[in-house]
# Entry
Amino acid sequence: MPDQIHFLSLAEQNGAIHNELISAIDRVLQNNWFVLGRELSAFEQQYAAFNNTSYAAGVANGLDAIYLSLRALGIDKDDEVIVPSHTYIATWLAVTMTGAKIVPVEPNPLTYNIDPDKIEKAITPRTKAVIPVHLFGQACEMDKVMGLAKKHNLFVVEDNAQAHGAECNGIKTGSFGHCNATSFYPGKNLGALGDGGAVTTNSEKLNEAVRMFRNYGSSEKYYNEVIGVNSRLDELQAAVLSVKLKYLNRWTSERQKIAQFYLDELKDVGDLILPNSSKNCTHVYHLFVIRTKKRNQLQKHLTDKGIQTLIHYPIPPHLQKAYKGLGFRQGDFPIAEELANTSLSLPLWPGMTEDMVNRIAASIREFYNAR
# Structure
């Protein structure tokens, strides 16, 4: 069997900046300050500038980023929050943590993102916020989402965990909403060497609220204004992210180049449905997700060829055991269920060689030619 092609490898990406990462980590060790220090402040300013927002607050992870955004906006058990039916479960979990009611809305089957045309039908007098998720790196149609939010006086919290640097109408994702959450999990386009996250906003008041909630509900040490949590991006991860942020645009270009190769080589192959971007929206390809009714057979074929793939996501949130109590049944969100049954994510990461990408595309064509 030929050498295995991993679904994701960080070796090349981190290896290319190894010395810079070591220098950043050593700087933190020399400073002997590990929480809420100068490295975090510097990264927050850099990340806010990257997103064209006034503020960024580093937090412990992406889930906390969504939750703290909702807390800062005052979302509680009396409210309803609109979320995509097709998303990673963290989007739903954050709403549950506030006590608010989850109201799922189906995606556009071509872009996999929440369908703005379906959002308005889900709005009730109790609706307080909507969370558009820029899934797989594809920017949502934020002009439409923001228009609905303004019309119905709703808060918007972008889940930007998979789309660092994506744009809608030339405006960066993570800058549209009132509060916007992201993740720096190692496999993300901008990934730390452990968990991490951030909240971006243009509101000084909301920025201060997030910072208070992330630090035990305290703005001044030992004086606690509200019931908060411990959710702070540490100095080591902030220093690492400052290094990586300098290379993000280059890595994004590499992702888009690999994605374009897939799009060209897999066009009109079998029953494949390839990623499709919304008008005036860009895709930074955190994941390259194809769809086929032969998903399981294709995945086995690729595995036999030494090509690792993953499924994002095999079970939609409404059918997860964790949410059995909400009473949703199979068939309630058929588009999300169809995506769960047909989606397959191909390897795509900075550092992939041309031979790797060629081999993957050729193996997929071989699968269909044999049929």
Notes: The radius of gyration is 21 Å. The first helix runs from residue 11 to 16.
